[in-house]
Amino acid sequence: MILAELSQDIQDAVAATREKVAKLHAELPANNLVVWTAGNVSERVPGADLFVIKPSGVRYDELSADVMVVCTLDGEKIVDGTPDHLSPSSDTAAHAYVYRHMPEVGGVVHTHSTYATAFAAVHKPIPCVLTMMGDEFGGEVPVGPFAIIGDDSIGRGIVETLKESRSPAVLMANHGPFTIGRDSVAAVKAAVMVEEVARTVAAAQALGDVVPIAEEHIDALYDRYQNVYGQKQ
User: Fold this and answer.
1) Low-confidence ranges of the chain (pLDDT < 70)
2) Residue 229 designated active-site
3) Short-list 159, 157, 138, 105, CA closest to 220
4) Element (H, E) at 189
5) Half-sphere exposure at residue 7, Cβ-oriented, CA atoms within 13 angstroms
6) Which residue of the set 135, 183, 219, 223 is catalytic?
7) What is the pLDDT of residues 10-53, one digit of tens each?
8) Among 9, 66, 151, 229, which one carries the catalytic annotation?
């Protein structure tokens, strides 16, 4: 597939998505969620079976819209105007699997943020002991299975774990958090929030036994935050 041969509407949508995804990557180091070149943000291109993702191994201060890589939902880079040697993120297969199997998802983020990854290292979910967690995650943040990077094994683990959960975040065992959202902004927000609650819960556990919130209160918190809180457009 050649980007320049697609309709002008799709080319315009790709350009806008590249700009958005490039800018959002700055939020990861700004919120201390990544180091060096680790981590990535992607977003589905509206109106096309394509998504935009960070190139592999490129430092955050070198990212711009024109180096964002465009891929099919099978995770294959198209002829998108970037140099042939510029390959997509090593997590591209995972992102692609999520987009293929969760059509409601428009954005995916992966980080190795310290506290969330610590929970992943010990294969423990983050328990829902904060009202913020009820609001944002609708319960605990679950742990997904161990999977090797390179094929869609991670993507399968993300989808299988989150299909039975209200959480937009999953802690992939021995790896780190992946988050999803209706778009890349929502997925980045979830990545910021999962690290925030992981840090707070870890501190609380160091003080003593944490106290879970009752399920009916979690349901009420989640409903209010998702359906009442904030400004309606």
Assistant:
1) 232-233
2) yes
3) 138
4) helix 184-207
5) 6
6) 135
7) 999 999 999 999 999 999 999 999 999 999 999 999 999 999 99
8) 229
